[in-house]
Amino acid sequence: MNGKEMGRDRGDDKGGRGDKGDGAGMEDDKRGGRAFGRRKVCRYCADKNVHVDFKDQAALKYFVTERGKIIPRRISGNCAKHQREVAKAIKRSRGLALIPYLVLQG
């Protein structure tokens, strides 16, 4: 096949970015578009008495996945200021071996 013949295969019905033939997006069509849940509120902004502390392992575990990754703010609901503080606190507590860098699954 030369380059011209290969270019013709791009317009087929299956695959591609605009394909909805597999039925994966059918749930959204029934509800009338994307359904957004309730807006998450930053727990540190909501309760002014709570502060980010690198020594508080129980509070930091909420912002770390089982694999040891820091949860992004769009999922955790933190504001930008407190997400930076949480990330810094997690990194400090990892350095002091209070929480693990990663969890090995065997």
List the helices and strands in order: HHHHHH
Poorly predicted spans: none
Please identify which CATH superfamily of the domain at 43-95 we are dealing with: Ribosomal protein S18
Count of beta strands: 0
Query: Roughly what is the average pLDDT, rounded to an integer?
Result: 80
Helix fraction by DSSP (H/I, runs of at least 4): 25-40%
CATH class term of the domain at 43-95: Few Secondary Structures
Radius of gyration, whole Å: 22 Å
What kind of sheet is the major sheet? none
SS field, number of helical segments: 6
What's the shape? flat
Which features does this protein show?
6 helices; 30s Ribosomal Protein S18; mainly alpha; 106 residues; single chain; flat
Tell me what you see in this structure.
With 106 residues, the protein is an all-alpha fold. The chain has a domain at 43-95: Irregular (30s Ribosomal Protein S18), CATH 4.10.640. Helix content is 38%, strand content 0%. It has 6 helices and no strands. The radius of gyration is 22 Å and the shape is flat. The protein starts with a helix and ends in an 11-residue tail after the last helix. 9% of the residues are buried.
List the SSEs and their pairings:
Elements: H1 3-7, H2 26-31, H3 43-46, H4 57-61, H5 73-76, H6 80-95
Quick structural gist:
By secondary structure, the protein is mainly α. It contains six helices and no strands. The longest helix is centred in the C-terminal third of the chain and has 16 residues, at 80-95.
